[in-house]
Automatic annotation (TrEMBL), chain A:
It comes from the Bacteria. GO terms for biological process: protein maturation. This is Hydrogenase expression/formation protein HypC. Belongs to the HupF/HypC family. One of its GO terms (molecular function) is carbon dioxide binding.
Length: 75, 364
């Protein structure tokens, strides 16, 4: 439950974003990030539908590799 | 450098450390335990280095009273009860024939729905504005902060929260304060620290004189943290190290912490099978109490025999506290498996018993 999932921001409307990971799109809240902190194309660590922090593409990729190894569920 | 090469590097460094007395390192995160178990990292460590799963599963420590309240609310009818999926199968002690889990309540006709995010609770409440919706929340800071954000952002009037949320560090503080504790070092939880900050774990080094390192979930981050605390131990030092600097700042996520402070206050709270831990739980603060399910609904749960009980024979409380390994429980792999779980540690994805079973550890 405390394991976040990295996702890429596709679109932003206020605090509401559409994010994508492994081809799956989800609504993600940016309410816990600073205003203007992320833009489409950025990567974020998402936990229960909320972005906890911005991350780099490389960090997102290595986190996904780990999740694939662990067999974690889709976002 | 690739993750694998980096992991090999840290492992080499661990193995190159001078030998010493046995070391017991606790982790307090189901995600850490999952990585350690599924990646087989324990088997790679030198003899005498033990990694013990500690209190890292919020579902496992959710008190029976709270579960019983959630079940009673759902069974009384007239409300929709939503909860993270893990919570639905957690059993309580109930007389034979009575509803002993939210999943059983659902099977008996109650309107119980699993959700994956707070936004799902808001959407369900918006879709039926005249029907009360109760969001039953068990979780650590990573889950509680989003719930605080959900409330701060504004929720429909018909949505209330039945809170069973806990802080991670007070259980560790309680364990370390015990004189006979056998712990030598701590690996601190990466995503809890992403929200709350690495500094929250400094007390382990400064108050208890034990090495502590915040870790991420990859092999390389976990092995870096294990190397850090082992090296500290061998050199007779104790400080706070951050082996997950990509995400973890000393102060955490300031917005998330501010939202938590605005919406919640910290209270004494019961942990299942463990008892009350001072200042270890969250409660709604001030005006937010209008969204407290306990303030809105009369909950007619049958009186419990005593706080924090586990099913007969279940050692989950000892497993949560790291006093017993999962496979040292008499029920592990016999009466209790993921298909037919007896205790919460076998139900939750973050429970040590569930993780060890998935990683192939079988009963002796």
């Amino acid at each position: 439950m405390c394991l976040g999932i990295p996702m890429q921001v596709v679109a932003i409307d206020g605090f509401n974003a559409v994010c994508e990971a492994q081809g799956v799109r989800r609504a993600v809240s940016l309410f816990m990030l600073g205003a203007g902190e992320v833009a489409p194309g950025d990567h974020v660590m998402v936990h229960v539908g909320y972005a906890l922090r911005k991350m780099t593409e490389g960090e997102a990729r290595s986190a996904w590799e780990l999740l694939a190894v662990l067999g974690e569920a889709a976002p | 450098m690739s993750g694998e090469a980096e992991a090999r590097l840290w492992l080499g460094r661990i193995r190159a450390l001078p030998p010493g007395p046995p070391v017991a390192i606790m982790n307090v995160c189901g995600g850490h335990e999952r990585s350690l178990s599924m990646l087989g990292l324990r088997a790679l460590l030198p003899e005498g280095v033990r990694i013990i799963p500690g209190p890292g599963c919020p579902v496992c420590v959710c008190p029976e009273e709270d579960l019983a309240d959630a079940i009673a609310l759902a069974m009384a009818g007239g409300v929709t009860l939503v909860a993270f999926g893990d919570m639905l199968r957690v059993p309580i002690n109930a007389p034979k024939g009575e509803v002993a889990s939210l999943a059983a309540a659902r099977a008996a006709g109650a309107d119980v729905r699993p959700i994956a995010a707070p936004q799902d609770a808001v959407a369900i409440a918006r879709a039926a504005p005249s029907r009360p919706v109760v969001f039953f929340v068990a979780g650590f800071e990573t889950t509680t902060a989003p719930v605080a954000a959900m409330l701060a952002e504004g929720v429909p009037d018909n949505l209330s929260v039945l809170l069973s949320a806990r802080l991670t560090w007070p259980a560790v503080a309680m364990l370390l304060a015990e004189e006979d504790n056998a712990l030598d070092a701590l690996v601190a939880p990466g995503h809890v620290a992403t929200v709350m900050g690495a500094e929250e774990w400094r007390f382990v080094a400064e108050r208890h004189g034990l090495p502590v390192a915040v870790a991420g979930f990859s092999a390389e981050s976990l092995l870096a943290a294990i190397y850090s605390v082992l090296r500290q131990k061998r050199e007779g030092r104790a400080f706070l190290d951050n082996c997950y600097p990509e995400l973890v700042r000393p102060e955490g996520n300031p917005t998330a912490r501010r939202l938590l402070d605005e919406v919640m206050e910290v209270t004494d709270a019961a942990w299942r099978g463990i008892g009350v831990i001072p200042r270890s739980g969250f409660a709604l603060r001030g005006d937010w109490r209008a969204h407290d399910a306990r303030a809105r609904h009369v909950i007619a749960a049958p009186p419990r025999r005593r706080a924090g009980e586990m099913p007969p024979g279940c050692d989950c409380a000892s497993v949560v506290l790291g006093r017993r390994q999962p496979d040292q429980c008499r029920l592990y792999g016999r009466a209790c498996t993921p298909r037919h779980p007896v205790g919460p540690c076998m139900v939750s994805d973050e429970g040590a018993c569930h993780i060890w079973w998935q990683a192939g550890v079988r009963a002796h």
